[in-house]
Amino acid sequence: MGLRGRKKGSNGEESKVLLLNIAAEEFAQKGYYETKVSTIVKKAKLTQPTFYLYFQSKEAIFQELVNSFRAELFNFVEKSRLESGLEIGSLAEKIKIGLTAIFSFFVENPNITKIGFFLTPQAEEVKVNLATQITDNLTKEVEDGYFQTNVDLRTVAESLVGIMERLTVTKLFTGIKEPESLADDIVNLLLFGISSTTNE
Amino acid sequence: MGLRGRKKGSNGEESKVLLLNIAAEEFAQKGYYETKVSTIVKKAKLTQPTFYLYFQSKEAIFQELVNSFRAELFNFVEKSRLESGLEIGSLAEKIKIGLTAIFSFFVENPNITKIGFFLTPQAEEVKVNLATQITDNLTKEVEDGYFQTNVDLRTVAESLVGIMERLTVTKLFTGIKEPESLADDIVNLLLFGISSTTNE
Amino acid sequence: MGLRGRKKGSNGEESKVLLLNIAAEEFAQKGYYETKVSTIVKKAKLTQPTFYLYFQSKEAIFQELVNSFRAELFNFVEKSRLESGLEIGSLAEKIKIGLTAIFSFFVENPNITKIGFFLTPQAEEVKVNLATQITDNLTKEVEDGYFQTNVDLRTVAESLVGIMERLTVTKLFTGIKEPESLADDIVNLLLFGISSTTNE
Amino acid sequence: MGLRGRKKGSNGEESKVLLLNIAAEEFAQKGYYETKVSTIVKKAKLTQPTFYLYFQSKEAIFQELVNSFRAELFNFVEKSRLESGLEIGSLAEKIKIGLTAIFSFFVENPNITKIGFFLTPQAEEVKVNLATQITDNLTKEVEDGYFQTNVDLRTVAESLVGIMERLTVTKLFTGIKEPESLADDIVNLLLFGISSTTNE
DNA sequence: GATGAATGAGACTTCATTCAT
DNA sequence: AATGAATGAAGTCTCATTCAT
């Protein structure tokens, strides 16, 4: 084959990654339906058949981005948990670490976050999973006697997810708050409510 | 028959309402893009030209539903506020009444709620407005000395919106909770957090 | 029936004439295809079914206007010919009288002229007839020895039609020239050409 | 044919040209509105999406034909002028050369001529331009003392345009006369009128 | 004489996707 | 690995025309 088929040193993997990145941006910006395959390839300076060399369909590339969101988020959060003094710390601390990790991932990957956490119908599933996990954690803490409450824990977990969702849009993506400070606020609110009189 | 200006009950108005209802259901279920005008009219046992007799475009009927969501929600909440002993009551009570009103409207109008609060890009605006209003109310309470807090009120407001959003999907639309009980939970959580040890 | 069915004293004939006039204006302005039945009836403050009470189709009302152009033009020209000292006069005089009559009709009936002389495919036929008639007249004059020429008379006739066509658009409808003065110019040009050094 | 720097013979350009030719024929025959994109592509043995690969819209392909009429006519006339002994010759000769060139272009390109000189609303503009140009030429001749007249030159020019218009339809497109002989007739008529007693 | 409501038919256009090279 | 060219399938919308009253 030699150099004949090559163009500007690009190769297959590069093209695929390029397409994924552009697609992520487009989907994040315009949503699934307003994103056209023709636009993606144009921005990548490629052609439509090339697109289908790497992805079975428009749906498929979208799904790939959704999956990468899920996988990378999981990895990132896992890694953060391990790095941060492991399983010790108070409930507040633990929640804070988790939230900070998630938010950090979100700000660093806004496009796939928009796709995987907001755009896709599977976002619902992601959120349900997240809520379940949170519920489990809370439940364990209660069982272990670390704190007690008269609020339904599932509701708390889902509320937390809702808070994350909304503040990600209004505070994080707008650059108004940083992951850590946002996590702080949320933990504070969640633990003590607005009637709190604690000092920081 | 008399009343020359109005043609009440004439078939035309009926057809329009019919189309609006079916469209609301379709949009709520499948989203804007997967909803086809052809499907709407088929379900209404009408034809496509008839659709365009009442709506300028698919976009237009969608917008009409969004607008009706906004207007009706506003009316409903306003009415609820007036009916409920007017401006009196503690902060908790006031929030609870407001939330209950909103949730009641949501359960009673799930389709346009999905459309106007979740589907449309304008939902963002709705939520921002809602958060602003809540922020204003909270701020006034603080200024009036009814309570004090060290949490940023805008963040609280936005969190509340996020909680509403999420619990509407998971608890309200699923039938797991009723408006009032849901409002109760939220107020509880928001005021005292999960560390609360208060008894009801 | 009494007065019950009546509306503002309008009756059938009136409505028909109204529709014809509005249609003439619309067709003249926008052409056949850009003229919509819905627009015509709206401007007439009537409804579409009413339109079909008087005309079998859009095509039909258009045809009616074309016919009325042909008939009225014929009448008008005939009348002019009779009124103007009948068959006497030089060739120049005769042509001038004929042209003035036609141009007068055109300025007074711009809408149906546009329709019947420019818009409709049948305009071709009208022009061919006109050219034939003119050719006949010229031929007779030559045969009667009133003048001689070495130009093909059919070509002259068709040229005259072309001149009329164009000057109607550029001079008559724009108000730059009056029928008589326009007829004058044309006769002058046609008889003597631009090399003419005759004085009026 | 020339090489023109284009992808000669490539299938894409061929398809575009094919579509243009068929479209020209269709438009010329049936007019803008009665010409359907579906018919054009069927005759080209292509499909509708292919049409939109080369033209943005039905309107656009029509405009492309109009533009090509204007450009090619201009080129052709320009070329003819240069080829024909340049600026010398009597007025009659000059007009004759110009008319012959135009008529030659017309017979050789009947379809785009019908479109650009008769069908499109822009034809009016073309004719006005033509008349202006002719007026300028005539005026110069008069100023240079080559001939004198008492007829308004703009009117003469517009008459000439009218004559061209009509004779193109009746003599040229029907094959009754050739460009040169037609130009001859017109010049004769225009210069001397029907009273001419000159011998050929 | 008139109309509110409805429709048959069809036009233009778009887009994801594939064929052949 | 890549592309020029093409298309199947479908969707939105328009308009002249009619039905039932």
UniProtKB/TrEMBL annotation, chains A, B, C, D:
All copies of domain HTH tetR-type, residue ranges: 13-73
Binding region for DNA: 36-55
PROSITE patterns tied to this protein: HTH_TETR_2
GO molecular function: DNA binding
Keyword line: DNA-binding, Repressor
Pfam families: TetR_N (PF00440)
Coiled-coil segments on the chain, per record: none
Protein name listed in UniProt: TetR family transcriptional regulator
Origin species: Virgibacillus necropolis
